[in-house]
Amino acid sequence: xxxxxxxxxxRYEIHVSDELAGFVQYRRREGLxxxxxxxxxxxxxxxxxxxxxxxxxxxxxxxxxxxxLPFCPFVNGYISRHPEYVDLVPxxxxxxxxx
Length: 99
Description:
Layout: E1 2-6, E2 11-16, E3 19-29, E4 32-40, H1 49-64, E5 67-70, H2 73-81, H3 91-94
Parallel strand pairs: 4-5
Antiparallel strand pairs: 1-2, 2-3, 3-4
């Protein structure tokens, strides 16, 4: 499994055996990344790939010191279930996302 940023398509992709298994779309601004949509191909559903993808991209955001806006319901739900990532969402926006 590999995860890579594809900036020209505004998304991170997750590949399994060199096959695209899914992605999370984003929009970037200086110091901020907004996650818009997460999608996993039906052939790869139920394997936890979306969670692995989101954990990786949130970890990368933390390492880069970038704030996160979880517009994507899956990303928002992931952060809700893993409160160690709530601090990535700017405090002024947490209530808007139910965090």
